[in-house]
Write a structure and sequence with these properties.
By secondary structure, the chain is mainly beta. The chain has helices at about 20-25, 65-75, 230-235, and strands at about 125-130, 135-145, 160-165, 175-180, 185, 190, 205-210, 210-225, 240-255, 260-275. The strands form two sheets. An eight-stranded mixed barrel has the order 1-2-3-4-9-10-8-7.
C-alpha cells in the first residue's frame, strides 16, 4: 500500500495489517481456518476482495461514459490508456452529484483529509448516523459475523438502519471505523440510497453512547468492482480517526440478486461535539 499523507505535512499512513484485522484473520501464514468466507453485503476482509451481496433493489442502467468525460469529472492525471481502455485515476476522487465515480488505481492510498484531523476519542459504541446533505438520520446497530462466516447485515425490513462493524474501531477511535448499509430494500429506497451524492468537504455525524458526537469530514468517494475491492485502502491502519461508509452500486443482477460494485465514502474525524 502506498503511503498516504495528511494535509500540512502530517504523519504518513501505516501499511501493516491492523491489529483488529489480524485478530479476525489470524497472523499472515497461519494455516488455520479463516473466520470469513464470501460476504453478502459489502466487504470481504482478507487477501483479495470479491464482495458478494444479498441486497435487492432497483435495476440501475449500465452506461459507458467516454474516457474524456470521466477524466474531466475526476481530474485524472495519469496518462490515457490504450484506445478504448479506461484509465483509472491516480487517487480517490471527490465525488458529488453528477460526478462519474470510478475506482482509483490499485495501491492508491486513501484520499487526503479534507480538514485538519482531530485527535482520537475514547471507545464508545455508535448509536446514530446523520449525514445532513443527503438527509440521512438513522440508528446504528453493531454487526459482526454469522455462523456461515459472513458479515451480518441490517435486516431488509429495516430500511432506515445502518450497521457498524463491531470488530473494527468505534467511530472516533484511531483507525478506520466501518459502517455498512443497504442502498435498496424490498419495499423501496434504503438508508444509503443517496450515498453516491456525497462529496468532499461535507459532514458526517456519529452519535455515541457516551453522549459525544464524532464529526467527520468527507475526503473522497469511489465506486469499485466487487472483484477488485481495495482492502488495504479501506481497512489499513491510519494515523488519525477515520470512517468508511460502504454500500452497493453499479448494475443490479436480477439472477444473482446482487450489484456489481461497492460505493465507498472515506472520511476523517475533524471535530467533537456533545448531543
Amino acid at each position: 500500500m502506498n503511503d498516504g499523507t495528511m494535509n500540512e505535512g502530517s504523519t504518513p499512513m501505516v501499511a501493516q495489517r491492523p491489529g483488529w484485522l489480524t485478530r479476525i484473520l489470524g497472523e499472515p501464514g497461519d494455516p488455520g481456518p479463516r473466520l470469513m468466507g464470501p460476504v453478502r453485503l459489502l466487504l470481504l476482509i482478507g487477501t483479495a476482495a470479491a464482495v458478494v451481496t444479498a441486497l435487492t433493489g432497483v435495476v440501475l442502467v449500465a452506461t459507458e461514459p467516454s474516457e474524456s468525460s470521466v477524466r474531466r469529472s475526476l481530474g485524472v492525471v495519469n496518462p490515457p490508456g490504450p484506445a478504448g481502455v479506461l484509465a483509472f485515476p491516480n487517487e480517490v476522487g471527490p465525488g458529488g452529484p453528477g460526478a462519474v465515480l470510478t475506482a482509483a488505481v490499485e495501491g492508491a492510498p486513501p484520499p487526503q483529509p479534507a480538514g485538519q484531523p482531530a485527535g482520537p476519542m475514547g471507545k464508545a459504541g455508535p448509536t446514530r448516523l446523520v449525514i445532513p446533505d443527503i438527509r440521512v438520520d438513522a440508528p446504528l446497530r453493531p454487526v459482526g459475523v454469522t455462523e456461515r462466516r459472513e458479515i451480518e447485515v441490517p435486516p431488509l425490513s429495516a430500511r432506515n438502519l445502518a450497521g457498524w462493524f463491531k470488530y473494527g474501531p468505534t467511530p472516533g477511535e484511531l483507525g478506520p471505523a466501518v459502517i455498512v448499509g443497504h442502498v435498496n430494500s424490498r419495499s423501496g429506497p434504503a438508508v444509503f440510497q443517496r450515498l453516491r451524492e456525497v462529496t468532499r468537504g461535507q459532514t458526517i455525524k456519529i452519535g455515541r453512547a457516551d453522549g459525544s458526537v464524532a464529526v467527520f469530514t468527507v475526503d473522497g468517494v469511489e465506486q469499485v468492482s466487487k472483484s477488485a475491492f481495495p482492502t488495504a485502502r479501506v481497512y489499513g491502519n491510519t494515523a488519525y480517526p477515520a470512517l468508511r461508509l460502504i454500500t452497493c452500486g453499479g448494475v443490479y443482477n436480477r439472477k444473482t440478486h446482487s450489484y456489481t460494485d461497492n460505493l465507498i465514502v472515506y472520511a476523517t474525524l475533524t471535530s467533537v461535539s456533545s448531543t
